[in-house]
Design goal:
The radius of gyration is 17 Å and the shape is globular. The chain has 225 residues and is of the alpha+beta class. The protein has a six-stranded antiparallel β-sheet. A two-stranded antiparallel ribbon has the order 2-3.
Amino acid sequence: MTTSNLDFLSSAASVDVSQFHHTPFYCEENVYLLCKKLCTNGVADTEGSDLFVVFISNEKKQVPLWHQKSSQRADGVILWDYHVICVQRKKEGSFSHLVWDLGSSLPFPSPLASYVSETIRPSFQLFSEFQRFFRIVHAPIFLRSFASDRRHMKDSVGNWTSQPPAYEAIVAEDGTVHNLNEYIEISTADVVKNVGVDLIDSVFTQKFGVLVSETQLEEFFSLIT
């Protein structure tokens, strides 16, 4: 990977999304595998120390996001119950953090600022129940701790609402078989009041990361070095 700003961005932006595993409606597992592949192919640090997994949701599980491939609309807007992306800390010599969103029609990856502008659209006036919140988890912690037995993708009689991936369900290192709900449950009471050094320290130690509002997202990553 080159250290030139423009070369790095053009190289990253040309990544072929098809080389990454993607199962529709299993975004948390897609990002889990994405982080692992970014580590093994040298795009990210070996242990994923420059990667952050970001869960987007709110208390009502209704979050509008634009430029989503699953949308039937021309502007790509869709109302997700939650969505998961990966943010990569900017490398030395580059000028932007990068967002890896396998479900987006934007360049893959996209600079954080343009992703926020195009996908989150903070300037777009929304009713309060549609405000987006972001649970930011350091990828090395996520890769050790995340587990899902996919129970959330079954209906009341046990049928799949969407076909699961063919590989085995993800189990955490400590043997936990399902903790997805703890990542996607959002309470506005848990949203941080201020973004500062203490918060940055917390994201590197807390199993379920830190919770920020959409107005704090870019500020948070501006402090990540």
